[in-house]
Amino acid sequence: VTQVINCFLCYRMASGTLALSLGQKLFSIFAFATCGGYSGQLWVSVDCQLDKASSNLSIGIDFAYPFRLHQVSFEAPLCEGRRRERLFLIGDYTSSAEFFVTIAVFAFLYSFMATIVYIFFQKKYRENNRGPLIVRTVVFSFMWLVSSSAWAKALSDIKVATDPDEVQELMSACKVMTNKCGSVQGPRWSGLNTSVVFGFLNFVLWAGNIWFVFKETGWHKGGPSVTLMGGA
Q1: pTM score, two decimals?
Q2: 29-39 pLDDT, tens digit each
Q3: DSSP secondary structure string, 31-96?
């Protein structure tokens, strides 16, 4: 009876760990795909009241990952004949964006490799189920928290820097009271907002998996001896 109970508990706990592993992989993919694959666009208009021919009512500005906004340029009319000025957006958020995507990619690769080891090399896995497993899981949990927090702050700053009303402040023509500047369309943020959500969900998954990894290190004294996949 005891062996049956132990086998049942082993199966339940292993299934739970494999479910966590699947969640880690999927959420990592969603995190770097929604962030790394993003491209956005905003539109502003300049209506030159004293020189209608110089007006431009559809100025499109494109930007994308890794959000080097200071390299994103666009042209705007000066409302002085056909003269135009070349302007750049403000800010460089490359470090936060690339850090977030890098953690997502490495977390996916580590989880994928750990799953292969767990399934095909269980004997070797059981011989080395000590401290390094829980250390790696704790490190990834911490890195997910740091990268997600940094990316959430960067995204907030990106939204400000690409706000059409803020972009109008960069244009000389918009500083002249006789001209009319307006916002035609702002960027869509659903994809990037989703990436932040997946980032923190990954932190929750990895932090929650610390308990399972702790139980397989041998430091946990209670309960049946069960081998689980750490950080997979």
Answers
A1: 0.81
A2: 999 999 999 99
A3: HHHHHHT-EEEEEEEEE-SS-GGG-EEEEEEEEETT--GGG-EEEEE-SSTT-EEEEE-----HHH
